């Protein structure tokens, strides 16, 4: 496979913890200059995959290359080319945005002048130039996350790992982060995104890989994955719940295809011809005197894709199926292996998924 087009290439990756197999021959290809979503239930192998890609964990078997370098034999080169943004901000709450960025620049040995210049560039890029010396603790959630994202780019990484980047943000803050991620990719950065917000993956990802039981079980664009679920659906909410079964029998679809949700007074069925199905549904319900509170046509969602491909399985309370608390089957570890510096020079940043 051509490495020149692939920012990340994984072939047959395996990782075991005793008798438990966290990765069972995982294959993953991420094209340069794209956002690639990595989805899966707890314990699927997302965390293990990201840790291996970020050189925080060694795999047992298989080929793993990031930014053109093997993570096992060229770990130092990989670390020079990647950035990592975990779930929790690694910012000094008492310092201002510019001071935080300059500090990270100095930690990366950029020198005082270059660190200051880079801080100015990133503040402008993320719309934070007007924050002045206001301490980070006074920032909104969206501003704080954008600053954390800027800090992860201090060395201009080729590949950026984003782990749950909008967890805990309100819709406005989430939108701000989304716009920032889009601008990154527009500038040529490759992003690997792990998220439990399926809407986020739908909004941002050019392609999505669904991971389950240590393997990629599906890969494609959001629309391609939705097509796996099937055709569009029509949803009908009946005002009188007592007539729900009667309405289900009248709908112009095979009775076995109609899903009945009594609690919500809703009927749902797959449709081949969107407009013809809508027109006929309105007609038969109207003739029977059954009042519809709402009728809507919709396309399959990533939620339905996720449930179909993974069987809806998810281990409780984030506990990994292999026994570990973080999806790896081992106790949570912070920082890089052997006490070496974590990617992006940001010590002790735990990767979780």
TrEMBL record:
This is ABC-type xenobiotic transporter. Its main location: membrane. InterPro entries: AAA+_ATPase, ABC_transporter-like_ATP-bd, ABC_transporter-like_CS, ABC_transporter_ATP-binding, DrrA, P-loop_NTPase. Its EC number is 7.6.2.2. It comes from Streptomyces venezuelae (strain ATCC 10712 / CBS 650.69 / DSM 40230 / JCM 4526 / NBRC 13096 / PD 04745). Belongs to the ABC transporter superfamily. Drug exporter-1 (DrugE1) (TC 3.A.1.105) family. The lineage of its organism: Bacteria, Bacillati, Actinomycetota, Actinomycetes, Kitasatosporales. PANTHER family: ABC TRANSPORTER ATP-BINDING PROTEIN, DOXORUBICIN RESISTANCE ATP-BINDING PROTEIN DRRA. It is a peripheral membrane protein. Keywords: Antibiotic resistance, ATP-binding, Cell membrane, Membrane, Nucleotide-binding, Translocase, Transport. GO terms for cellular component: plasma membrane.
